[in-house]
C-alpha cells in the first residue's frame, strides 16, 4: 500500500510539473554529478525525450573512500536505475575509477561503452587501484572481483562508428587526442545532438594525433574548462625548457622526480627522455628509472593499438619498437632502486597524495639539489597543488613536518585544451549552447566571459553555462520525429505537405522482433497492416443503444433516408436495407442482432460491398440458445409446442393452422437498415409473450466518425418516435434484453 501511494504521489508530481510547463518534454537537461566547478570525479547526466545518458564515472583524486565518488544518489531528479547508457571517454581514474562501483553497488541497469584501448587499459589500471585500496585505512569502494565482473558488462565501440542503443539513442565516438583510446562522444536523441568532449587536445604530440572535429553541428557542446583562459606554450618550447631543467639538476648532482599518471603523459615523457639521452652521450651514465608496474604493462597496449597512434610513431614501428627503451630501467620493486647519485625517477601518482611518488618526494624534498617537475594538471586538494604555492614545509604521511628545500617546477605537458584550442573548436562546430565542466570555478568563470565576448564580436549565437554539482542546465529543443511508413500507406510515395493518417507503433512491437536486441523503430501503419508488421492485432469495440418505439419500421426508415440521403439523393450517407427473418430452431432460439452484424463484417472483409440490397433476406440458425444471449429478444421456449397443442385440442382445420403460423412469423420478422456502412438500425417487433415491446437497436463500431453518425441516427429516431407511453420502462426492458 505504501509503495502504491508513493507511486501515485510521484505520478501527481509529474502531472503537476507538466501542467506548469507543458513544454517539459522538449527540455534538454544536463546535470553534473561531479566535475561541476571542480576537477575530478567526472560524471554527467543528459536527459531528453525520456532517454538518459551518463558520461564518465570517475573519482576525485583529492578525496578517498566514498567521499571521492560522484553524487550518484544526490539528486531526486536523477534516477540511476533509469540511465539507458553510460559512455566512458578514457581510462584516467577521475573519469572511470567509479565504474565498478556503479555496476556492482548501484541499481544501474543500462549498457556501457568505451573504446577498445580504453577497456584494455581499464582492466589493468582499475584492478591495480582496487588492489592498492586493500591496504588503505579507508573503506574500499569495490574488490578485484567486482572489477573482473564489470568487464562482462562493458561493450566496445570504434571511432566514427555510429551505434543506436536503447531505442533511439545514437552514439558516435571521435578521437579526443588526450590519451590512447580517448574519445569525444556525439549523442543524438530525436534530432538533438550533444557533443561531450571529455578531456581533449587538438594539438598532436609525439605519439598521438589531435582531436577530431565532427562534421555535423551539435546543439550542445559539453567541454572541459581545465585551463580556463590560459594558453599553452608551443610544444617545442616546453620540451626545451623541460630538458634543460632536467640536465641542469643532474649536472648539479641532484635528482629529478617526475610525478606522472601511469598512462598518457608518462609515455610522452619517456619518448622525450629516450631521444634526448640518445642524442647526448654524456648523460647516458645517468639512469632513468620508471617505477610504475602499470606503466610498464601498458606499453604492450600501445604496441597492440599502433593504428591509433600518429603517423610519426607508425613510421618508427616499421623499423623498431619506439617503446622498447634503451636508456630507461623499469623497476619491478623498491629493492632495484639504488638511491645513490644523480638520476631521473618517474613515479605515480601525479598528485603526490600516496604511492611511490609520495614516498620518494618525502625522501628528497629537503635536499636543495633535487627538483620536482610537475608535468600534469595539479588538482585542488592534492599535495602537488599545495607545493606549487611555495610552502616552507610539508606534512608527511606519518603526521610529521619536513622542510621543502628542493626546487619545484610546473612544466605542463598535460594534453588538455587551452583557451585557443577551445575557442577555435567552438567557432568551428558552432553550437548554440556550451556547457563548461571539469574546471575550477574561478577559471571556469573567466573562460565563460571570454567565450561569450568572442562570440558577440563574431556575431555567433552562443549561450555558455557553468553548472555546479547537481545544478541542472535546461535548454528547450523541439524533437525531430523520424517515422518509417510501411504497408498500404507506403504504396504511393507521399508528397511534401501531405498528411498521412495511421497508427504509429514504437518499441519492440514496431520491429516485429521483440528480444532481438535491435533498436526499435517507429512505424506508421494502416490498421489493417498491424498483424503483418507487428505482433499487434486490430480490436473492435461494438456499441449498442436500444430505443423503445411505437412507430412502424417504414416510418423510421423514411426519416433516416430523408436525413442522411437527402432529397433525390443529395445526401452524403446512403441508407441501405437489410431484411433479416428469424428462423426458429426446435429449442425456440431467439434472434441475435450480433450475428447479423458479424455476418455483414465477414462479407466486408471478404471484399463484399457495404450493405445488402433492400429486400434481401438472411437466415441465421442459433445453435446454443440462452436467455441472456439474445440481443433484443427473450427466449420463446414452448411457443411452438403450445401452438401444436392448441391445434390438436381445438381441431382447427389446416387452413386456420397455417394462418396462425404466418401471423407468428410476421410478428417475429426483424428488419434492419445500415446508414453509411457505419451504423446498423435493427427493428425488433414486440415479443408475443410480452417479454419486451417493439424497439429499435442502434449498433456501430466505435470510432470518431461512426460515433458522430450514431449520435445523429439516435437523434432522428428519438424525434420520429415521439412520446411513447412507458418509454422508460420499455427502454430498460429492451436494454436488459440487449445485454
Annotate the secondary structure layout.
Blueprint: H1 2-20, E1 27-34, E2 43-48, E3 51-55, E4 85-87, H2 93-96, H3 99-105, E5 111-114, H4 116-133, H5 144-151, E6 154-156, E7 163-165, E8 169-175, E9 183-189, E10 192-196, E11 220-224, H6 235-251, E12 255-259, H7 265-279, E13 288-290, H8 293-304, H9 311-317, E14 328-330, E15 343-347, H10 355-364, E16 371-374, H11 383-387, E17 393-395, E18 401-403, E19 407-410, H12 419-429, E20 433-437, H13 441-457, E21 463-465, E22 473-476, E23 484-485, E24 503-505, H14 508-511, E25 523-525, H15 530-533, E26 542-548, H16 553-564, E27 575-580, H17 593-605, E28 617-618, H18 639-650, H19 654-668, E29 670-675, E30 679-684, E31 695-701, H20 704-721, H21 727-738
Parallel strand pairs: 3-4, 4-5, 5-6, 10-11, 11-20, 12-15, 12-16, 13-14, 13-15, 16-19, 20-21, 23-25, 27-28
Antiparallel strand pairs: 1-2, 1-22, 2-3, 7-8, 8-9, 9-10, 17-18, 24-25, 26-31, 27-29, 29-30, 30-31
Helix pairs in contact: 3-5, 4-5, 4-8, 16-20
